[in-house]
Amino acid sequence: MAQPTRRERPVRTLVTLGVLIVALFGALISGSHWSTATLTPKLALDLEGGTQIILTPVAENQAAITDATITQAIDVIRQRVDSSGVAEAEITSQGGRNIVVALPGTPSEETLNLVRTSAQMEFRPVLGISAPTPTDTSTATATPTDAATPAADAAATPTPSATATAAPSDTPTKAAPDNPSDTAYYITPKVEADFLALDCTNKANQTGGKLSAADKALVACDPTGSAKYLLGPVEIQGKEISSASSGLGVGANGTSTGKWVVNIQFTGTGGSEFRVTTTRLQGLTSPQNQFAMVLDGLVISAPSLAPGVIITDGKAEISGSFTRLTAATLANQLNFGALPLTFTVQSEQTISASLGSEQLEKGIIAGLIGLLLVVVYSLLQYRTLGLVTVASLVIAGLITYGVITVLSWTQGYRLSLPGVTGLIVAIGITADSFIVYFERVRDELREGRTLPAAIEKGWERARRTILASDAVNFLAAVVLYFLAVGGVRGFAFTLGLTTIIDLVVVFCFTHPMLAVLAKTEFFGHGHPASGLDPRRLGAPQTPRYAGRGRIVTGQPAVAPDRLAVPGEKVPAVATVGSPSGHQTIAERRAAARAAAASSAPPAEGTEPLPPDTTSTAAEAEPTSGRTEGNEL
Amino acid sequence: MAVGFAQWGNDLYTGRRSYDIVGRKRLWFTISFTLVAICAILLVKPGLNPGIEFRGGSEFVISGVPTNDQKLAADTVASFAPEEIPRVSTVGTSSLRIQTATLSNTEVEKAAAALAVAYDVPVTQVTSNFVGPSWGQDVSSKAIRGLIVFLVLVTLVLTIYFRNWRMAVAALLALFHDLIITVGIYAAVGWEVTPATVIGFLTILGYSIYDTVVVFDKVRENTTGVLDQSRFTYAEKANLAVNQTLVRSINTSVVALLPVSGILFIGAFVLGAGTLRDIALALFVGMAIGAFSSIFLATPFEVLLREREPKLHEHTAKVLANRAKDGSGEQVGAAAVGRATAQLRPGSHQGNAAQPRRRK
User: Fold this and answer.
1) N or C: which end of chain B has fewer CB within 10 A?
2) Pick the residue with more confidence: A137 or A408?
3) Which of A319, A343, A321, A316 is closest to A123 using CA atoms?
4) What is the ipTM of this complex?
């Protein structure tokens, strides 16, 4: 195993890790000072309390539900939830099929209904258009919508002031409408008052989300808030659109006009309905010759009919000041509206905040108990070395906490109960890698290696195992994350995260820490309480040939009167391939004995060591085939 | 205890003490097969108890109840839906969960009001949930898809890592063994299977493989170059590996099980039904079985597969023939098959090939 002679710098690694942790928490603390960060991770609904609704969009006519459809559906639901005034709602797609709506607190029944209902795309005739700002009742007659307002006036009660004060009547003045553009029937005093009061410059009114009756008039804004509309009843349902596309318009002579247009193709029924509509609208004056496309209570487009055009073939072309992007957006919206999408409620869960916090609290207690048991067990098994496990777990815990909090600050991650479980389970899995490593070190000690050598050699072997098993764990977490639904994701996420953190800790803390500790008297000489006492580990007592030109004795003195022996064991291993092997055996023995006699322990064992402790290569690879050192 | 344990570990490592785990494969296979068979029966007879997520239905949670009287809830529900047999369980320390079949919106409101009156809590403390029957199916179909993808990936990874498909196959066998037994025990206990339980089942996948990988890693290390020597058979080398990792297996299993049993205890006795309990039982059983299967099932099975390779088969025959011929045998070689794999001790000559090469 030829390895480059690479000097390991355990202290440097430890310091780097320390700096990283400090940086992590520094960012967090400064973030909480000057930004929106909090010092605790945000909690998911199951811990914080709230309502979670999982919806599956279902297309009525077997149409395929694509990612684009889901995105559109999410946009629509977001609009609705925002318009209902629920703050911090989370709407996400899950597994490419479900939509998860998480509403904190206890949302009202109306909000829930809004979320559950399908998006509505409808074509309505325009009865009136006006500037987006609310209009005073007194100036109502002066509104620029000349077509709508006179008609509204005619239908209104004689005293306009009454409409403002008393509750305006919602009863039509006529028994039945002549046609959908019949302003006298559809513009009731209430509708008119609503229309006048509507403020489309208010952001809240630009989100739509209001459900409306199909056979009543509707007041609506456009999404940009540039105008408000008074619309007639639904004439054509969105599902009657068979397709919509955007493209460059084609002129009469078949050449491109260079302008972006949106083409709509209606279904058979839609085509005939549209013919009826266009025929009627032809005879009307502006703005009543316009029809509005309403998606979920928002007017996404309200084109007027070109004079003399009656569309009979169910193919309409909308032209105007479109850019490529706006044309594509409109076509998308029309297509989405064309999908008669309904949402099936998969699950609707309300979690009370008190229940969530109790589960969290008990979960944390369970975690602490588990941690404590792990600590006790590793102290029993590994003595002082167990403290390294404890320290590693603490470091892992710190990093995990920091990363999760930073993620919840920057990425909006929220900790759920399965996530907490994942963290608790991770205690065991993280401790696993230390055990794999420690057991490997012990094995090497049993083989008769010195502690520093055992730590390096054991690391070399354990590293591979740890990497392989963590890779499997990580793989499981990734597969779970991408293919699972619901709470599984939270669990998979923490599991994957802690697997990575486990690697970081083992590589950057546990191993360097052991390398540093090996230099101390306590560990280096295998104090019985260190957990690395070669005698207790049954290391061979006699020197032996360990292959590859190494002779090991690997055993400190058994009897106190032969104090020199610990000194001997070191050169015994170090001789071969050791750069310091210039002394003769006798010289080294003498030096060791002298050192021991002068009761300067650090000098004795460790002095010839440093090149070895830090270099695996020196241990693993003899530079010559000399079998010297067979001194006992 | 620790001293004895350490000594035991030493003996296992050096081979002074050795359990013939690989050799007694018939015994382990019988035990495993019996367990799997029992669990298969359990899965059919009482079967898994599907939670509301899989059945669909309405659920009420009354929080802050003064009494945990479950009968009261059952009676209340019965008062307006006589044919309904609700499932009542405690959640947390002061909450009750009542599950019924799917109720209409008005029924839900009535039930919530009735429950609030019965337990003398404000109606705002009664929350109602609705779960569609397909939700759980969605979870399970996704879980199964995840399982298949995971199995394919893990087979690839293990085959590449161990450079031998047999180890991957053995690991997968152990995995299925663990999964079936865990699910079977879940059926026997009769706790509801919720999406959280499914999470627990899925986690076993990762853990079972993880455990097996660690043991196999040692097997691979021990059996490297097994064909270049004629002292030990592959089975003996593998058996030594299992023995040498025994202490580690015990330690990691104990350490992994401790936090899980913490959750299980708190979940089962303090919190009642809920995510923590559901995940913990699946994990606890899965981890314990996983430790068993990685030692007693995966390795013997892997050896069984490997020994069918012509090269190894020949090698084994040669080693055994040598031993029989030698009679007195070599120092350790004469010992019983399976116990012969002691670590080489000083004093024996390992042949010229073992001598260091002069390097340039």
Assistant:
1) C
2) A408
3) A316
4) 0.77
